[in-house]
Specification:
The complex is a heterotrimer of chains A (257), B (217) and C (473).
Chain A: H1 2-9, E1 14-17, H2 21-25, H3 28-40, E2 44-46, H4 56-61, H5 64-75, E3 84-86, H6 89-102, H7 109-116, E4 119-121, H8 122-129, E5 141-146, H9 149-154, H10 158-166, E6 171-174, H11 189-192, H12 194-211, E7 215-218, H13 221-233, E8 239-242, H14 243-251
Parallel strand pairs in A: 1-2, 1-3, 3-4, 5-6, 5-7, 7-8
Chain B: H1 3-13, H2 27-30, H3 36-49, E1 53-56, H4 62-73, E2 77-80, H5 85-94, E3 100-103, H6 108-118, E4 121-125, E5 128-130, E6 135-138, E7 154-160, E8 164-165, H7 168-175, E9 184-188, E10 193-194, E11 202-203, E12 210-216
Parallel strand pairs in B: 1-12, 2-3, 2-4, 4-7, 5-8, 7-12
Antiparallel strand pairs in B: 5-6, 6-9, 10-11
Helix pairs in contact in B: 4-5
Chain C: H1 3-17, H2 19-39, H3 43-62, H4 64-78, E1 80-85, H5 88-101, E2 106-109, H6 113-118, H7 120-126, E3 130-133, H8 136-143, H9 160-170, H10 180-197, E4 200-203, E5 207-209, E6 214-219, H11 223-229, E7 233-239, E8 243-244, H12 250-262, E9 269-273, E10 287-293, H13 297-302, H14 304-307, H15 317-320, H16 323-328, H17 339-350, H18 352-355, H19 367-371, H20 378-390, H21 407-421, H22 423-436, H23 444-448, H24 462-469
Parallel strand pairs in C: 1-10, 2-3, 2-4, 4-7, 5-8, 7-10
Antiparallel strand pairs in C: 5-6, 6-9
The chains are: A alpha/beta (257), B alpha/beta (217), C alpha/beta (473).
Chain lengths: 257, 217, 473
């Protein structure tokens, strides 16, 4: 899977960023901080302005033609051999794995297949390709991680986010009960089955609250929107943040002048 | 066309039907190997973990132990197979003990009520033990019929250490059944149990509430 | 939404509103997940076992027609009478006929999900035959006039107090007790007599071995052994997919099934039956029948992707690990098979009109696929069946494909696709949204906001910020 392609990637000079639609509209800091982290490693980041959404919402709703229409718009934006970095396990998995099903038998399948080997989730890329070395400059902080189900089970990158957070010297990583259970977002599930989704996220924030981290970070903005919104609604002081923002915020050296 | 023909016809036209499938690699099970001592230790540990009474004994002493256990448990009537070596040894040891022995030498129809309500314990031999799962591989026979290990509240099972195998796969292969299996083959791994009431474990439902294994050398 | 979909949502709401259901399931599922995890301490070994389990089932399916013929021939050689049924109606008629030929009054049943699929108890009772469940969980469910809420633990939705009250209400001369042991003893006592008196014992089958003509049944209570041994006639009902090729195939499936299902190393009993009572044998049924049921399975078989559903060995691990099932319980699904496997199986058995909404009740978190001992790609199948549910296609192998399609939803996705396939349009929409910063709290956002604050649109989109940084092309 991704390990095979990692070997061939080496340390690239240039990468593409696929920013995702949720980051674009709701969490642009996560996108910018991802770029900053990559650029600090000496990598040029290309952000094609034509990108919109990976197509997952329609795909998971069963509207595969519509999903393909949108997916096709993305595929054309990332020519060449440069890796494509997604600060989202879910969107990265859509492009890496589900595009293959979505485009099977289509004339552009070969192009999609080639693209799929170049897709990386951000933390996976930082850890496994860049072997990034982080110097923590921040104050002591307790951080809990919520890894999205797609990052965990489809991309297999749960350990990468943990490794990154653990490498921050002043951060104490705290766990919480039923940590690997879904937060109940599920994309359109949160709308179509709002009552189940509400029950799930309520349980999730109960367990997060109980372990009292200062902050909850994650690699997927859908989960963060879900969990963050529920924490905020109940007046919890725990704030959610994309992992790229946590990493950047704590390791960015103020300019010396 | 019959239902049979229709079903088979529909299956036959399916793409990939009859294709040569991938190989099944049983290596992960074949790799489960323990020494004889480990096999016995594992079997005993697993059986005990599910409420089985296991007594480590010998070929020479188990009948005496059986007698003691029957008396201690208040077994009045023990059903066994007097014509088998196990049954013969037990019969001899129990003579004069106050524990009556009886044979399952009639068709069940002739003594259904008696077996269900008036027999306290059954005694059977065990063909093989299975270390992986802590199971007794029991093959009912005309002398030790199927209900003997099931209906009486206590099941005494005599197993020799020498026949404890690693896995069920190993036992089945060793039996060399080919295309013909005995009418009934059983794995027994503990007394009857249920957890259907709020996951509370209760031993002794429709089968024996005591499984007593006499493990001989 | 069609009627079944609306009713599905109503059942979900009722389940969510019932704190007892929430508590009972959560507690049970937490326990089952922990027990399963403890049973597979070696992750590599587990993955190899799952590979083997999947290979065994795929092999059986690849050779299914030939193996069914072989199973039939070997069963017949062993003296087992084999019947084939295309539909549940045919299967019910076969069973009824057998029962009528042998006294025709009472049937004692071991646990069988296929008999639930057939609604066999109703059918027999409608013809004046008592059909009594003997598995304790099934017995409880039958007493309550309910259906199983879990395929392995049928009464898991009830706590001890509820069962105690049920026994007092339904059984003569029973005193209230919350002692599980005492409750079990009551059921045992009542059922003991029934095993003696029943004309026919009816069971399911866990695996049917083609090369030997052997029926394998697993269980803990001993009721399955009694059902298949004490009455004069044993009838086993099973789906045609339950066949495996060789005796070797049994070990890996046995190694996976109980551990995945209930976190037990093995069930108390594994009962391998290869025929009726032979000359000289003292007990066992004088007749053994095997009823092979299709009921839509051949339709799934035709499609290579849908066929993976037939790999299922009915362990229930997918429901034990499903965060949706843990919250709504088995009855909310309204189908014989609940949880993730039910969500993919039911639309295939019943069609998209009846069950097309089921695959939607999943976050696609993948926990089901992660634990499936035979590697059924359940999440992928959920997406496939969501597509079948909203795509009208006469060539689809799934019955009533497209039945869940609504014009308004289809139009929304068309509009969504248009916006996201035309960058200029996307840019206009997102820039407008971020200029207003807030989204109106109506429709979906209203439901969202019941337990969450509404998402806040950033002042500038990532597109705008990246354009300003200049590292763009």
């Amino acid at each position: 899977m991704s390990h095979a392609s990692l070997a061939t990637v080496g340390r690239p000079r240039r990468v593409y960023l696929f920013g995702t639609c949720l980051i674009d509209l709701f969490f642009p800091d996560a996108g910018v901080d991802s770029v900053r982290l990559l650029e600090r490693e000496g990598i040029e980041v290309v952000y094609p302005q034509g990108q919109t959404c990976c197509g997952q919402p329609a795909y998971n709703s069963g509207y595969h033609e519509d999903a393909r229409t949108v997916a096709r718009q993305q595929v054309s934006l990332f020519p060449g051999d440069d890796p494509v970095i997604g600060p989202s396990g879910s969107c990265a998995s859509m492009m890496k794995h589900h595009y293959l099903d979505l485009f099977r038998g289509e004339p552009d399948f070969a192009e999609v297949q080639a693209l799929s080997t170049r897709i990386f989730e951000l933390t996976e890329f930082l850890v496994r390709v860049l072997n990034i070395d982080l110097k923590d400059l921040g104050a002591p902080q307790k951080v809990a991680i919520h890894t999205s189900c797609h990052a965990r089970r489809e991309m297999g990158v749960a350990g990468d986010a943990e490794q990154l957070v653990d490498s921050l010297g002043n951060v104490e990583r705290v766990g919480f009960e039923r940590q690997t259970e879904c937060c109940g977002f599920g994309g359109t599930f949160a709308v179509k089955h709002a009552p189940i989704s509400a029950a799930m996220v309520t349980d999730k924030v109960d367990t997060i609250d109980a372990s009292a981290p200062d902050r909850l970070v994650g690699g997927d903005c859908g989960c963060l929107m879900n969990i963050g919104g529920a924490l905020e609604k109940r007046g919890s002081s725990i704030r959610v943040q994309h992992i790229a923002s946590l990493l950047w915020e704590r390791t960015d050296e103020p300019p010396s002048n | 066309m019959s239902a049979r023909d229709n079903i088979l016809a529909r299956l036959r036209v399916a793409p990939g039907s009859g294709a040569t499938p991938g190989v099944r690699d049983f290596g992960v099970i074949e790799a489960l190997e323990w020494t004889p001592a480990e096999r016995a230790e594992r079997l005993v540990r697993l059986l005990r973990s599910v409420n089985t009474e296991v007594h480590e004994t010998t070929q020479a002493t188990w009948p005496g132990l059986l007698r003691e256990l029957c008396v201690a448990k208040g077994v009045g009537r023990l059903c066994l197979a007097p014509v088998t070596p196990v049954g013969a040894a037990a019969s001899e040891a129990l003579a004069g003990s106050g524990v009556a022995t009886l044979a399952y030498d009639r068709d069940i129809e002739a003594w259904r009520e008696e077996l269900f309500f008036e027999v306290d314990a059954g005694l059977t031999a065990v063909t093989a033990g299975i270390a992986e799962t802590g199971s007794l591989f029991v093959v009912p026979t005309p002398d030790e019929p199927r209900l003997l290990s099931l209906v009486p509240p206590v099941h005494f099972a005599v197993l020799s250490r020498a026949v404890i195998a690693n896995t069920l796969l190993e036992v089945l292969r060793a039996q060399g059944y080919g295309a013909t299996m005995p009418t009934n083959v059983l794995l027994i791994s503990g007394p009857s149990k249920t957890a259907d009431i709020e996951q509370t474990l209760v031993y002794g439902v429709h089968g024996p509430n005591q499984l007593v294994v006499l493990l001989t050398d | 939404m069609n009627r079944p979909a609306t009713e599905f949502k109503e059942r979900i709401q009722r389940a969510l509103d019932d704190p007892q259901i929430r508590t009972n399931f959560r507690r049970a599922m937490d326990g089952l997940m922990a027990k399963r995890a403890a049973m597979f301490p070696d992750a590599d070994e587990l993955e190899q076992l799952r590979d083997l389990g999947a290979a065994v089932r795929r092999n059986a399916l690849a050779r299914l027609p030939g193996l069914l013929e072989k199973l039939e021939a070997n069963c017949q050689r062993n003296g087992i009478i084999v019947h084939w049924a295309e539909s549940v109606a045919e299967a019910n008629a076969i069973v009824l006929d057998i029962v009528r030929k042998h006294g025709g009054k009472s049937v004692i049943k071991g646990k069988s999900m296929v008999s639930e699929e057939m609604e066999l108890n109703h059918h027999l009772e409608a013809h004046g035959i008592e059909a009594l469940e003997s598995d304790l969980g099934e017995y409880i469910v039958q007493l309550a006039g309910e259906t199983p809420s879990h395929i392995i633990m049928p009464a898991i939705h009830k706590n001890t107090r509820q069962i105690a009250e049920l026994f007092v209400e339904k059984l003569d001369g029973v005193e209230f007790t919350e002692d599980a042991e005492a409750l079990t003893a009551i059921a045992r006592g009542l059922l003991r007599r029934k095993f003696l008196d029943a004309d026919v014992g009816l069971s399911g089958v866990n695996f049917a071995v083609a090369e030997t003509g052997t029926l394998c049944l697993i269980e803990n209570e001993g009721n399955g052994r009694l059902t298949t041994t004490a009455p004069d006639v044993h009838v086993a009902v099973t789906g045609i997919e339950k066949v495996v090729e060789t005796l070797d195939d049994i070990t890996p499936l046995l190694s996976l099934l109980p551990r995945s299902a209930t976190g037990q190393g093995i069930t108390t009993y594994v009962n391998m039956i290869s025929g009726p009572r032979k000359q000289g044998e003292r007990d066992g049924p004088r007749e053994v029948h095997l009823v092979l049921l299709d009921n839509g399975r051949t339709t799934s078989y035709v499609d290579p992707e849908l066929r993976t559903t037939l790999q299922c060995i009915r362990c229930g691990a997918c429901m034990n690990h499903c965060p949706v099932y843990a919250r709504i319980g088995g009855h909310a699904y309204g189908t014989v098979y609940p949880g993730p496997i039910g969500e993919i199986l039911s639309p295939q058995l019943l069609g998209c009109d009846e069950a097309g909404a089921l695959p939607g009740a999943s976050t696609l978190c993948g926990a089901c696929g992660e634990v499936c001992p035979v590697r059924i790609p359940i999440p992928k199948m959920l997406v496939r069946l969501r597509r079948e549910a909203v795509t009208r296609d006469a060539a689809s192998p799934v019955k009533d494909a497209g039945a869940q399609r609504s014009t308004s939803e289809a139009l929304i996705w068309k509009a969504w696709a248009r916006i996201h396939a035309v960058p200029g349009l996307y840019s206009l929409v997102t820039r407008t949204a971020s200029a207003f910063k807030k989204m109106p709290v109506v429709g979906p956002l209203k439901a969202w906001s019941s337990v969450r604050t509404p998402p806040r649109v950033a002042g500038r989109t990532l597109h705008q910020r990246m354009a300003a940084r200049g590292s763009t092309k």
